[in-house]
Design a protein that fits this description.
By secondary structure, this protein is of the alpha+beta class. The chain folds into 2 domains: 2-149, no CATH class; 165-328, Cathepsin B, Chain A (Alpha-Beta Complex). 18% of the residues lie in helices and 38% in strands. It has helices at 13-18, 134-139, 186-197, 204-211, 222-230, 244-252, 310-318; strands spanning 2-9, 25-30, 36-39, 42-46, 50-64, 71-80, 83-84, 88-89, 107-110, 113-130, 142-149, 165-166, 235-240, 257-263, 276-287, 290-294, 305-309, 323-328. The strands form 2 sheets. Strands 1, 2, 3, 4, 5, 6, 7, 8, 9, 10 and 11 form an 11-stranded mixed sheet that branches. Strands 12, 13, 14, 15, 16, 17 and 18 form a 7-stranded antiparallel sheet that branches. A hairpin with a 2-residue loop joins strand 6 (71-80) and strand 7 (83-84). Helix 3 (186-197) packs across helix 4 (204-211). The chain is globular, with a radius of gyration of 19 Å. It starts with a strand and ends with a strand.
């Protein structure tokens, strides 16, 4: 099973739902007043109980359409065998430090992904927000989402929808930025390309500084990308895509997908990087069994646009992390 659950305020549930592939839509609710508690400079947003029977992987994200800066942390507990686990937390994002509770034996966390040792029946998701005025931040349009899926289920047969799709996403090469950053900022570079597509241009180096997570020394913490886009007026969510058809649905509706891939040498023909333990690229379209891609690892902006076989992309993306960022404006 794969699905995206969400709770929103200011962003209509209908708008969020229509940006999610139909096969992945689950529960998207408007947040009741009781969902938010504010005290001593900290807000706690608690989603309702979500029934995610059979899921083992959970990827949260938060999108607040305001330029205000805040620190956030995701917290999850799961019901297994009728018993609720303790709360487990991701790393915190932003300048404030949080205590972390990374594992309890049933749930563990790898930076930004929760994993259960056995399939769960239901989950509860919380978001902890620290800011100068958390009430003001949560007065802006926001959405809290959770992608839930089981693990190890290979995607179905790859099919290419017709007619072809080609989105005009500006090309940016991470290799043309500061040499000290060039090999590390695929995620900020991809976000910058999609923001430019939505007419919210931003310098890659500025975005990289904003998305950097000092605790892990990473520029590619997935929810940090969604937060950064939202500060520029573009909403978004993270999704563990179940198959190519879900990605094709997004592309056909004008929504680029930023895909997290991992591959060894020879697994992705024509790849900008020979091999990678983790890389982000932008899916911009498809035609005749080929995915159209903006790969930021290309040496120049002129060589960023690439063509990768969908069956190979299926292997290095959907059979591995399968995670994608979807960014969209509130007004389509």
């Amino acid at each position: 099973m794969t699905g995206l659950w969400g709770v929103t305020s200011g962003i209509s549930a209908a708008r969020l739902t229509e940006a999610i592939p139909p096969s992945c839509r689950r529960v998207v609710d408007a947040a009741p007043l009781s969902a938010v508690r504010v005290r001593d400079g900290e807000a706690l947003v608690t989603a309702s109980e979500w029934f995610v029977r059979g899921a083992t992987h959970f990827v949260p994200s938060f999108s607040a359409l305001t330029s205000e800066r805040a620190s956030v942390r995701f917290e999850l507990c799961a019901r297994i065998g009728g018993v609720w686990s303790p709360w487990v937390t991701t790393v915190g994002l932003g300048p404030e430090l949080f205590d972390q509770h990374p594992t309890d034996g049933l749930l563990s966390v790898d930076v930004d992904t929760f994993r259960a040792t056995t399939p769960v029946e239901a989950v509860r998701l919380r978001l902890r927000v620290r800011a100068g005025d958390p009430s003001a931040l949560l007065a802006a349009p926001w959405a809290l989402t959770l992608s839930a899926s089981d693990a190890g289920v290979p995607p179905g047969r790859v099919t290419t929808a017709a007619p072809p799709v080609k989105l005009v996403v500006p090309s940016v090469s991470q290799m043309e930025t500061e040499p000290s950053l060039a090999h590390r900022i695929c995620s900020p570079t991809c976000v910058a390309m999609v923001l430019d597509y939505w007419r919210r241009p931003v310098a890659v180096t500025a975005l990289a500084r904003e998305m950097f997570h000092p605790g892990t020394d990473l520029y590619g913490v997935w929810p940090a990308a969604i937060l950064a886009a939202a500060r520029r007026g573009i909403a978004g969510y993270l999704l563990r895509f179940p198959d190519w058809a879900a990605a094709a649905w997004c592309l056909a509706r004008g929504l680029p997908v930023i895909a997290s891939v991992r591959y060894a040498a020879g697994e992705l023909t024509g790849a900008a990087a020979t091999a990678t333990g983790g890389h982000l690229l932008v899916l911009t379209g498809y035609e005749d069994g080929v995915a159209l891609v903006n790969d930021p690892a290309a040496p120049t902006a002129a060589t960023v646009a690439r063509r990768y076989a969908i069956d190979e992309l299926n292997r290095v993306w959907l059979e591995r992390t399968a995670v994608g960022y979807v960014l969209f404006p509130l007004n389509p």
